[in-house]
Structures are given as structure tokens and as C-alpha cells.
Amino acid sequence: MSALKQFLIKRIEATGPITLATYMAECLMHPVYGYYQKERVFGTEGDFTTAPEVSQMFGEMMGLWLADRWIKMGRPDTLNLVELGPGRGTLMADLLRATSPVEEFMDAISVHFVETSTQLRAAQANSVPDARWHDTFAEVPEGPMLLVANEFFDALPIHQYEKRDGAWFERMVGADGDVLGFMLGPTGAQFALVADEMKDAPDGSILEVCPSALSITGEISDRLNQFGGAALLIDYGYRKSSHGDSFQALQKHKFVDPFDEPGAADLTAHVNFGMLKTAAIQKGTKVFGPTMQGMFLMAIGLGARAQVLAGAGDEAHQHKILADLKRLTAPDEMGNLFKVLALQAHGLDAPPGF
């Protein structure tokens, strides 16, 4: 039995079942045993692959989109370029390379990473040595901002609720000997975040809410409203609130039981973009999307960029570029599953891709 599993079982035996949100937080971010303290998380040798790891084209297109927003902002002399959950720093490194010819842009920006993992901070420092690190978004200095978050919100802890005999209960994590698993308990305060129309559902229905995602979206919106700028949120999820269980664990690119080896697998849930959009609108921020990742990337020029890269190499290189393009944009790959949401301060025109 792993050390984290022993820790969780002892905690549950002492204080009772814990929420799924607490379980996810411990499994992912425990300072010693948490998943993101693992040496290898991303890529073929890790447990999953993100879009920036698939191809340099993804980060390059993000850079051009953000540089366009900076120009439309009036080219401010100082700008916080922020990434939430930057992985190994691959996206930011590609982004900075693509925008390096925009001299005034490079002079204006200061790069800020929101990252709590010590292990990942070390990897990010190798990719982007001049970055500044923060444990929370609130620590990022005030000022005009451009922000990108790719596969950040899916790892935020969620609460789940299940309807039984006409009543809603919270899905808790309990222990039966050395076996962890779901059990039902009374709903906590976070159940108030569930829209009333979603509560009218048949027995057996499951609902999910992610309070931290809504809170962070609100913080981003407040910052944009006060200082100006734009944010681009990319993740897998659904456009509107719906019933269903999207909690999952991934290890070595395969789905596994999320309770077998706490801390050894990536735990995620699909992002409710409808709730993120509502949270931003309630703050008065301009919102665009969500739209499909494939449609967004092609609309901002990914196809043209792929043609340029493919033309600069041999047949094997061309095949790889086209395969990467398909992976990022095809409906049966990442193209439809992943959504893109843009948040902007008032005064900016509609952003490319929407």
C-alpha cells in the first residue's frame, strides 16, 4: 500500500469520509506524495500528452493570438503574460519563440507562472528561465494582463452529487479496510452552486461542480475589468451544464481505477464551460465561445502554419506535421473534445477565432 493511501485511510478512520474535492486535492497536490511531485507526468514516458507536447504549432498559435490582443490593447509598455498550470513550460517557450520578432511585445512582457509543484517548477525553469513563479493567481502583480490556461481547469478538485429516492446526496470517499471508494453523505455548502433547473433529474443522476474553477474565473475577470487584457482558457469539457460522471484517472495513457493507487495517477474531470462563462458574465467581462479547439485553431491560421512547416522537410517530416495537425484539430481526436473560451476587458474588438 502506498504512503498516500495509508495517510488517507488513517485520516478517514479518524475524522470520517472526505469529499471528492478533498481526495483529488490530496492525490494531486500533497507536498510529498502528490501526483504532480512525480518525475515524469507529461509525454510518451509520462501518463498523458497535452497539445503543446503534441506540436510546437500549438504554442506558436497561442503566441500570435496573444500578441494580436496586445496590439489591440494599444501596445501597453508593461504587460503580465500569465500561464496557469504551465506543465513543463513547453507552451510558453514556443509562444515566446513565435513572438520574438515583435520587439516591443518582448520588451513589454514579464512572464508569470502559477504553479505549486516544486518538481514542475524546476522543469519550467529550464524552458523559461526568466519566469516568475506564484502559488496562486492572486499573487500575480496587478497591471494589464494576457493569460493562457491549457489543461489547467480539468485538474481542479470537483464535488459530485448523486440523486437517490428523490433526494440529492454528496458522493464522499470512504474506506472499507484498505479499500477506498464512494459512499453517500449529506450535501455540503457547495451544492448551492448547482443551478435549480439541474436538480430536477431522475434518480441515479450525477452532478458535478468545481468551486475553485468558478472562483479563479471570477478573479481573472476582475483583473481584466480593472487593468485590461484578455484570457484564453483551453480544456476538455462540455459547453453547457449537464448530468453525468466525468471523474477519471489516467496512468501511462490508460484509464485506471482512481482509488487503487492515490498519487500515482492523474485525476481529472471535464470542465463545465457553461459555468465558467456564467461566472465571467456575472463579473461583467466580455466572453467569447466556447468553441471547438479544432475550429479555433484552423480559424487563427494553424493550417497555413502546418503547410509552411511541412514544406521545410522531407517526406517523414511532412507526415509528422500532418499527423500533428490532425491530432490537434480532427473531431475524433482533440478537435471537438477540447473547447476554447476567451475572456476580455471591454474596449477590445472580437478576438480571432470566435
Describe the structure.
- This protein has about 350 residues and is of the alpha/beta class.
- It folds into 2 domains: about 5-20 and about 160-210, no CATH class; about 35-155 and about 210-300 and about 330-345, Rossmann fold (3-Layer(aba) Sandwich).
- It has helices at about 5-15, 20-30, 50-55, 55-70, 90-100, 105-110, 120-125, 195-200, 210-225, 275-280, 295-300, 300-310, 315-330, 330-335, and strands at about 20, 80-85, 110-115, 130-135, 145-150, 160-165, 165-175, 180-185, 205-210, 230-240, 250, 255, 265-270, 270, 285-290, 340-345.
- Helix 9 packs across helix 10 (about 275-280).
- The radius of gyration is 21 Å and the shape is globular.
- The mean pLDDT is about 95.
Please count the beta strands (DSSP E, at least 2 residues each): 16
CATH topology (level 3) name of the largest domain: Rossmann fold
- The pLDDT mean sits at 93
Strand content: 15-25%
| Weakly predicted, low-confidence segments | none
Q: What would you say the CATH architecture of the largest domain is?
A: 3-Layer(aba) Sandwich
The Cα radius of gyration reads 21 Å
Estimate the global geometry from the Cα principal axes: globular
What's the end-to-end separation, in Å?
A: 49 Å
**Largest sheet composition:** 8 strands, mixed
Count of the domains: 2
CATH class of the largest domain: Alpha Beta
Approximately how much helix is present in the residues? 25-40%
H/I helix tally? 14
CATH superfamily of the largest domain: Vaccinia Virus protein VP39
User: SSE string, helix = H, strand = E?
Assistant: HEHHHEHHEHEEEEEHEHEEEEEHEHHHHE
Helix/sheet category: alpha/beta
